[in-house]
Amino acid sequence: MRKPVLHAAFIMLIIATLLLTGCKQADQEEASANVYSNDVNGEVSLSEKDGFFSPAVIQNLQQYLQQGVTVREGLKRSGIVGFSDNGSVLTISQVSLDPLFEWAFEINGKKLGKDNLDTVLQDHDEISINIQYADPKKDGKDAKAPEFTVLKLDGGSMKPDMTHSYVFPYTNNQSVRDVMAHSGFVKLTDNKMYVDTVQGYSPKSVEKWVVKVNGKELVDSGLEMKLTPQDEVEIRLERASA
Questions:
Q1: Which of 65, 113, 181, 234 has its CA 20 to 30 A from that of 43?
Q2: Rounded to whole angstroms, what are the CA distances from 139 to 50, 97, 116, 144?
C-alpha cells in the first residue's frame, strides 16, 4: 500500500528539482542581461538638445568620443566637425551658426568652454550639444534659451556642394523674406516675390528653386509668411517640369 505513496513523492521531488533549476537559469540570464546593460551604460553617451542632427550623425560622433580621448580629438576624428582659428567649434555636420550663437558642450551637466575641449573623456560620461548665445551676458543662469530660425539649402543632385544649414536669430514678426535677407547670399527677383540666385548661382533652364517652410512648399506671396522660433526655411534646387 505504501508503494503508490512513495512513487508520488518521487515524482513531486523531480518536479520540484526541475522548477528550482529553471529559476536558477532565469536568475543567471537576468544577471547576464544586467551585466550587458552595465557594459553599454559604461560607454560615453551623446545627446543633442535642438534636434538638428539625425540619429546617424549622433552615432557617428559618439563612436569617436570614447574613453581616453579628449572631446576635441574625438570631434576632429569624426570628420564632420569644423573648427575656427581660435579653436571653437564652427560647424557640425553641415550646420553653421550665426555669430550671435555658438555651439555649447556639457559633460555630466557641466558646461565646457572652448578652452576645455581638451578634457579627457571617462566611462559613463554624458555629453550634450546645444546652442547658446556667444555673449556670456545673454547666457546667464536665468537667461531664456536662444530663439532661432533655420535656413536650409539643398542643392540636390545638381549642386550637392550647396547643401548646408544656417542658424539665424529669430526676431518678432520675422518673415521668410527676412530670413533670406539676413543670410546675405540669397538674392530675390526685382518684385521680391521669388528667389533669383543663391550664393551667386542662377538655375539653368531645366532647374528651379523651390521654397518650403517646415517641409511645406510655399506658393505665390509665400515669402511674406511669418515665422515662429525654430521654423525651418528650405531653398531646394530641383529639376523644372517639362
A1: 113
A2: 16, 16, 18, 8
